Amino acid sequence: MDPAREVDADRIAADPTDVPAPVDWDEPRDHDIALRTKELVAEIEPGVTFKYMTFEGQVPGPMIRVRRGDTVNLRFEVPADDNSDIHNVDFHAVYGPGGGAVDTTLVPGDEAAELSFRAEFPGLFTYHCAVPAMDHHVSSGMFGAILVEPEAGLPAVDRELYLGQHELYTKGDLGEKGHHAFDHGAMLDEDPTYVVFNGEHHGFTEDRRGGIGAAVGESVRVFFVNGGPNQSSSWHPIGNVWSRLYRDGDLVSPPGRYVETTAVAPGTATVGEMELPIPGPIKIVDHALSRAGRRGALAVVDVEGEPNSDVYDPGSDE
Fold first, then answer.
1. Is residue 316's pLDDT more than 80?
2. Which of 30, 159, 171, 178 has a CA 20 to 30 Å removed from the CA of 73?
3. Is residue 180 annotated as part of the catalytic site, yes or no?
4. What pTM was computed for the model?
């Protein structure tokens, strides 16, 4: 292994609490959105570096939130200082050639691409780079989610979170210190080294960046996108259930109720909601358990508050 490289950013993981505010308008409006690509070296876990490809320097890329009927005026850039490869963006929420990919394909240093699209259908949708080597680019971090709220909006909740899963295919072994180069052969064999949430191995756990805060009595909505590029996720909250599950990002049909685990295919986004009646950690995982326990697909929601023995009684300490 080559030694670990000097990092370009101390953190690659998108903040799971960085979610745009809910729609509070009832007439169509325009949104001016800038999206820039950035290739950078960061840590998968301490002592393990990797060259990521990103939207706005984070994994997953920034969550975009609009209302059905709104118009997005997109400015897409591939700056020469931050990129060595061709990039574009395909929005699954767009009617248009390649979801916009045809008209946003840029070589580093090209003049910015500008296009507009109207959000014609509601739901939570993936966006990702879609150049010919899209599997490499998506695996390296180039995916995110766009939320198109129905005209009536979404039911109010106390807290919203944003998580993205994807696979990292590297020439190093799991946990091996050093710089992990991308492994195209492993990608073709669909044999990942890591399967991670928000780009990092167990990033939101006590041993890394800490859990995600929440409180007893709250309701929590999680926006989840599986970038892939190859493997489905068995998405599950340990110690809870998805009390309302909007499968495949479908926000129009009645949600599933009290679902333990749901399949989220690569290139699909899903919305799950939980109630938090008791304190303690909730581990959001890919229930393909070797991925959760070993390869990195686990994040902890730390719920604080008073116990509720009517719901859960841990027994006597004596």
1. no
2. 159
3. no
4. 0.97
Domain boundary pick from 149, 182, 206:
149
Q: Which of 90, 135, 183, 286 is catalytic?
A: 90
Domain that residue 164 falls in: 159-304
Residue 83 pLDDT > 70, yes or no? Answer: yes
Is 260 assigned a catalytic role? yes
Q: What pLDDT score does 254 carry?
A: 97
Q: What percent of the chain has pLDDT over 70?
A: 99
Terminal CA-CA length for the chain? 51
Using pLDDT thresholds of 50, 70 and 90, give the confidence band for residue 242.
very high
In a domain, 25, yes or no: no
Single out the catalytic residue among 1, 56, 261, 302: 261
Tell me phi and psi for residue 290, to 5 degrees. Answer: -65, -30
- CA 11/CA 57 separation, integer angstroms: 9
Q: Is the pLDDT of residue 94 over 60?
A: yes
Residues 6+ away with beta carbon under 8 Å from 27 = none
Active site residue 200: no
189 is annotated as an active-site residue: no
Q: Residue 261 catalytic?
A: yes
Q: Which of 173, 260, 304, 313 is catalytic?
A: 260
Binding residues for Cu cation: 87, 92, 128-129, 137, 142, 287
- Please state, rounded to an integer, the average pLDDT across all residues of the chain: 97
Check 82, 103, 218, 287 and give the catalytic one: 287
Known active-site residue 10: no
Mark whether 137 is an active-site residue: yes
- Overall number of domains in the chain: 2
Condensed to tens digits (0 to 9), the pLDDT of residues 21-49 reads 999 999 999 999 999 999 999 999 999 99
136 belongs to the catalytic site: no
Task: Assess contact for 52 and 38: CB atoms under 8 A.
Answer: no
Residue 162 phi/psi, 5-degree rounding, is -135, 120
